[in-house]
């Protein structure tokens, strides 16, 4: 494996979100100088502010996580989605080029239309169907067109966050405890992706200097119902029946692809075998972090 170990200073946008907190902690623990920014101190829609922040802190790489991720809100307010996810990313790309800094852009497996029968790999052609997915894909195009050099890294169904978790895993556990039963969609398929594994994968990737587009989900794929079954099992919630239901029972503003699972084909071809199976990652998260919160020893420089 090629090594690019000279990188020591990283600037992270969207650094206080679910992924950002884990990524900043992990990079800090690995000896990086991490500049953790978020919308309150560096709004990616503000080109001049980004440029000043870069000049003040002199990072050697930009990790661009900041995004509007509420899929239905993006559908209701598409201009806001494009402003943040597309134009904000264009700003990052242009400054990356002007300052000669590589950039890591976090994208999504939902850039595909979902009509494929099996998971999508990096060589499949994107065809996004929602405002969120289109805005993220336009961001990919801006990164390819304007940045100095880039890693575009697509994630699957992200989970993590520990005590602050308000997403699928924590919600399933909360509902199961309250009602003693669950309903979960059985006709949508994706790749669960643990924030900790994803962050470690990004760290490993930027050491290689092998730029390009990569999928980085935990291996394997499942339906929401199958994921719910594992959540209940790993949380030790016995005798909790789970009913599979159609996604038509939950009408939403934005289109969700039937298939948004991702295959890490490019990683495998490059010999990057970093991601464990999603069931192992999910069990680890629930038993060691979500149900037994760990204290943080974070020493990150916040803006």
Task: Compose a concise summary of this entry.
By secondary structure, the chain is an alpha/beta fold.
Give structural notes.
This protein is of the alpha/beta class. It has a domain at 9-165 and 192-219 and 260-275 and 298-302: Rossmann fold (3-Layer(aba) Sandwich). The protein has helices at 18-29, 47-57, 71-76, 78-99, 131-146, 168-179, 195-208, 224-234, 265-270, 278-290, and strands spanning 9-13, 33-36, 61-64, 102-108, 149-155, 157-159, 182-185, 189-190, 192-194, 212-215, 222-223, 242-245, 301-302. Strands 10-5-4-3-1-2-13 form a seven-stranded parallel β-sheet, sandwiched between helices. α1 (18-29) crosses α7 and α8 (224-234) crosses α10. The two termini are 34 Å apart. The model has no long low-confidence stretch (mean pLDDT 93).
Structural descriptors:
7-stranded parallel sheet, two-stranded parallel sheet, alpha/beta, Rossmann fold, globular, 303 residues, 13 strands
């Amino acid at each position: 494996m090629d090594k690019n170990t000279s990188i020591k200073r990283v600037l992270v946008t969207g650094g206080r979100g679910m992924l950002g907190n884990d990524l900043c902690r992990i990079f800090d623990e690995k000896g990086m100088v991490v500049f953790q920014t978020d919308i309150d101190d560096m709004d990616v829609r503000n080109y001049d502010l980004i440029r000043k922040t870069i000049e003040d802190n002199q990072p050697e790489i930009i990790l661009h996580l900041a995004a509007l991720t509420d899929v239905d809100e993006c559908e209701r307010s598409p201009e806001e989605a494009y402003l943040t996810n597309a134009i904000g990313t264009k700003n990052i790309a242009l400054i990356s080029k002007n300052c000669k800094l590589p950039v890591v852009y976090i994208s999504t497996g939902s850039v595909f239309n979902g009509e494929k029968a099996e998971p999508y790999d990096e060589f499949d052609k994107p065809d996004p169907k929602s405002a969120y997915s289109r805005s993220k894909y336009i961001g990919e195009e801006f990164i390819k067109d304007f940045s100095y050099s880039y890693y575009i890294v697509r994630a699957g169904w992200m989970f993590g966050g520990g005590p602050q978790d308000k997403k699928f895993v924590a919600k399933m556990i909360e509902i199961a405890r309250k009602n003693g039963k669950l309903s979960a969609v059985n006709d949508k398929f994706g790749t669960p992706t643990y924030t900790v594994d994803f962050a470690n994968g990004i760290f490993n990737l930027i050491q290689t200097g092998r730029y390009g587009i990569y999928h980085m989900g935990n291996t394997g794929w499942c339906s929401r119902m199958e994921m719910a079954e594992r959540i209940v099992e790993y949380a030790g919630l016995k005798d909790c029946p789970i009913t599979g239901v159609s996604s038509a029972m939950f009408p939403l503003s934005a289109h969700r692809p039937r298939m948004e699972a991702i295959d890490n084909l490019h990683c495998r071809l490059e010999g990057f075998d970093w991601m464990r199976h999603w069931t192992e990652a999910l069990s680890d998260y629930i038993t060691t972090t979500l149900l037994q919160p760990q204290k943080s020893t974070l020493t990150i420089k916040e803006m």
